[in-house]
Specification:
By secondary structure, the chain is mostly helical. The chain is built from four helices and two strands. A two-stranded parallel sheet has the order 1-2. This is RNase H type-1 domain-containing protein.
Length: about 110
């Protein structure tokens, strides 16, 4: 487990977890006196528990609305938001990766 890897400074069951643990300890050596992982029960750690189990679509993101407005002010407002969803589109007109209500088209590539 992650807790065991941190407290023992490594392990043999997962090479991927071992690599992440090594990266973390390189950072810890420079920034923190010591580190210890402890278990927090799921019912008292609901947000982290949900995030550890949730499947987050890496393609779902957007520019911060303030940053988008600054870019639009400087270069002009785009006519269509490409690669958007109804949840993250910053313009009335948008294309989406998949067929979705409100999208003018699919796959702007």
């Amino acid at each position: 487990t992650t807790k065991a890897h941190i407290n023992r400074q490594g392990g043999t069951h997962s090479q991927g977890l071992m690599r992440e643990t090594q990266k973390m300890f390189h950072w810890v050596e420079r920034h923190v006196a010591s580190i210890r992982a402890e278990h927090i029960a799921g019912d008292t750690n609901t947000k982290a528990d949900w995030l550890s189990r949730a499947v987050i679509d890496q393609g779902e993101w957007q520019l911060h609305p303030h940053i988008f407005q600054e870019i639009a002010h400087r270069f002009g407002t785009p006519q269509v938001d490409l690669f958007a969803t109804p949840q993250n589109s910053q313009l009335p007109r948008f294309y989406s990766r998949y067929s979705t209500p409100g999208a003018e088209g699919v796959n702007a590539l």
